Amino acid sequence: MALPLIPFNIPLTPEALNSFHAVKASQRRLGDLIHYYSDSIAAKESLKADNPLVYEVWEMENEAPGRCLSFGMTRVSPGKVGREYFFTRGHFHAGEDGDELYVILKGRGVLLLFSKDGHCETIDMLPDQICYVPGHMAHRVVNTDSKELVFFTVWPPRIVHDYATITKMGFPKLVLAGQNGPEAVDNPAFSIVPD
Ligand code: F6R
Ligand code: ZN
């Protein structure tokens, strides 16, 4: 898609983006994400009862030659599979040179990041904050709140989103509900897989 070179302003809401031309909307339900959760028994049990919406994404992938901004918005529902909070699949930006900015609009969560050498960071996501994602780090958003988490995103266009590496490696940390709130713990299933 291409963004016409005309100025515009729209409200910073999912509804406004949704009605904006050239924006692609997609939804991920628990059934689409079943293999991503650490507790596969809890995941299958939850699915028997319901197939809830885990997150929705609205993307304006600006592929016009010479243009350098794409943008979008993500809304992650509150919820858990076993003790693990709902999250986005997470991905690397292939090429590792496409940085990204997240602007948190609503809710609270945790941004999990890691680089291919296994270095991992967890960053809190709070309303009215921005989070910077360096281009070489995989990123996943976890909603640790009891309400929805909404954030606006800006990244360079023509980036290839690499989900396959996450499917192979997983993330180094899981974010689980603990006795004193959310806790990031080591993921026993994580392994570094060379390219
Ligand atoms: C784009 C980006 C976000 C995510 C969105 C959904 O580079 O990081 O717009 O694409 O939050 O997450 P994924 O793509 O991991 O399913
Ligand atoms: Zn990204």
Verbal overview:
- The chain has 195 residues and is mainly β.
- The chain has helices spanning 14-19, 30-33, 40-49, 164-169, and strands at residues 24-29, 53-60, 70-76, 80-81, 84-85, 92-93, 100-106, 109-114, 120-125, 130-133, 138-143, 149-155, 161-162, 173-178, 181-186.
- A six-stranded antiparallel β-sheet has the order 1-2-3-12-7-10.
- A hairpin with a 5-residue loop joins strand 8 (109-114) and strand 9 (120-125).
- The longest helix has 10 residues, at 40-49.
- The two termini are 30 Å apart.
- The model has no long low-confidence stretch (mean pLDDT 95).
- The structure holds fructose -6-phosphate and zinc ion.
- Residues 57, 72, 74, 88-91, 100, 139, 141, 153, 155, 161 line the site of fructose -6-phosphate.
Distance between the amino and carboxyl termini: 30 Å
Hetero ligands: fructose -6-phosphate, zinc ion
Secondary structure: number of strands: 15
Chain-averaged pLDDT: 95
Which value, in Å, is the CA radius of gyration?
Answer: 17 Å
Strand order of the largest sheet: 1-2-3-12-7-10
Q: Which stretches are low in confidence, meaning pLDDT under 50 for 5 or more residues running? A: none
Helix and strand pattern: HEHHEEEEEEEEEEEEHEE
Largest sheet composition:
6 strands, antiparallel
Helix content: 10-25%
- Shape summary: globular
Structural class: mainly beta
Count the DSSP helices: 4
Percent strand: 35-45%
